[in-house]
Amino acid sequence: MKVAIVGAAGRMGGRLIQAVSEAEGLELTGATERPGHAQIGVDAGLLAAVGELGVPITDDLAATMANADLLIDFTFPDVTLKNLEICAKLGKMVVSGSTGFTPGQKKQVEKYAEQIPVVLAPNMSVGVNACFKLLKEAAKILGNDFDVEIVELHHNKKKDSPSGTAVRMGEVVAETLGRDYNQVANYHREGMCGERTKEEIGMQAVRGGDIVGEHTVYFIGMGERVEISHRAMSRDMFARGAVRACQWLQGKSSGLYDMQAVLGLS
Ligand code: NAD
Q1: What is the CATH number of the domain that holds 168?
Q2: I need a labelling partner for 37 at 20 to 30 A (CA). Which of 44, 60, 106, 182 fits?
């Protein structure tokens, strides 16, 4: 399968170039960046330090996708929506790891996925997806007697807060407990804000240095506490997850899929 990568010079871009170039059944045929980026024209393989691949980075996604079956997109919601529009027109598959979509933008993604197969997942790691499953079980067992708080830590360049993974963790717990995440998520506590409600799910984001990504969901009861944590040590496992999503998506019909589906966990 011929694969192109958008955002090739980004933190995830380099990891994705390496993962795709080493993956069975995948061939890197294109890599793009935003117009004016300093790395336009540079070979994607040299950029990712895996040796020359004969794939120069361009700023023309439509032309790049003419010679690719699938786009891997780890960028930002507004960029991803434009990329989906191009891929939907050309009938190309998309695997996107972008995070920070508003509910309205998510609806737009769903619209494009009516035309093409799309995997969208805020976290492509196998470990985090196992955590989603564990969270469902923990919420079922612990029920409404335990207060739920989520704390995530990321590097100081991350643009969206809380992370898409933390939001998904909150959604999984809320859905399992029969709550509407958008109603119960509490992002701000400051001053005399009163006691916490039974239903709320506190969401805290810590930013600093080069932390790849850490998430802990606390189930806090009377006299005891359960913590489900995931720590990412490198970005390579996100890239390996994206490769797995590409391989799984081949031959699938149009629709919006997540990593739970890719990993056979749903
Ligand atoms: P980054 O800023 O390092 O990289 C993004 C790249 O996209 C940059 O090189 C930027 O120039 C490029 N870009 C921006 N606009 C563009 C355009 N119009 N056309 C082409 N390229 C464009 O960010 P990052 O740390 O690599 O993260 C990227 C995204 O991936 C974020 O949304 C992040 O939250 C997400 N992410 C997801 C996972 C996951 O497993 N799903 C893991 C890590 C990061």
Answers
A1: 3.30.360.10
A2: 106
Nearest ligand 1 atom to the CA of 9 is 9
| Distance, CA of 90 to CA of 24 (rounded, Å) | 25
- Ligand 1: does its nearest atom lie under 6 Å from the Cβ of 30? no
How many residues belong to the chain?
A: 266
**pLDDT digit string, tens, across residues 250-265:** 999 999 999 999 999 8
- Nearest CA, atom 2, ligand 1: 10
Residue 212 CB–ligand 1 contact under 6 Å? no
Number of structural domains (the chain) is 2
What is the per-residue pLDDT across 199-223, written as a single tens digit (0 to 9) for each?
A: 999 999 999 999 999 999 999 999 9
Distance in Å, CA 146 to ligand 1 centroid: 36
Distance 98 CA to ligand 1 centre (A): 7
Query: For ligand 1, is residue 17 a contact (CB within 6 Å)?
Result: no
Ligand 1 neighbour 119 (Cβ under 6 A): no
Q: Does one domain contain both 112 and 17?
A: yes
Nearby residues of 56 by Cβ (< 8 Å), 6 or more positions away: 31, 41, 42, 43, 44
| Ligand 1 center to 10 CA (angstroms) | 6
pTM of the model: 0.90
Half-sphere exposure of 176 (CA within 13 A, CB side): 21
Range of the domain at 177: 126-232
Asked if 114 and 244 sit in the same domain, the reply is yes
Residues 163 and 250 placed together within one structural domain of the fold: no
Using one digit for the tens of pLDDT, what is the confidence trace for 47-94?
A: 999 999 999 999 999 999 999 999 999 999 999 999 999 999 999 999
Same domain for 106 and 186, yes or no, is no
- Provide the pLDDT confidence category of residue 266 given band limits of 50, 70 and 90: confident
CA angle 9, 13, 19 (to 5 degrees): 140
